[in-house]
Design brief:
Blueprint (H helix, E strand, L loop, with lengths): L5 E7 L3 H12 L3 H4 L4 E7 L14 E3 L18
Parallel strand pairs: 1-2, 2-3
Length: 80
Amino acid sequence: DKNKMLQLLIDIKTDSLAILKRLIQKVKTYPLMTRCAGVKLVITGNRPAIADFAGYASYIYFDGELPIHGPYYGGSGLFK
């Protein structure tokens, strides 16, 4: 159903780069999911650097922190 959205919140507790690499390898085996605009994988917890956000696939998003608690999300990182 194109009117429904699915958001999976994934809380990474260890090495974000290694975990994201493995997660993307696994998710790529489900092309119907990765091509569906209604599916978002939202990464929380230990995340990569903000400057690297834009380099991830369109279905990968990152939760943010308020500027008073963390770095400012500007540019392409804001949309991820």
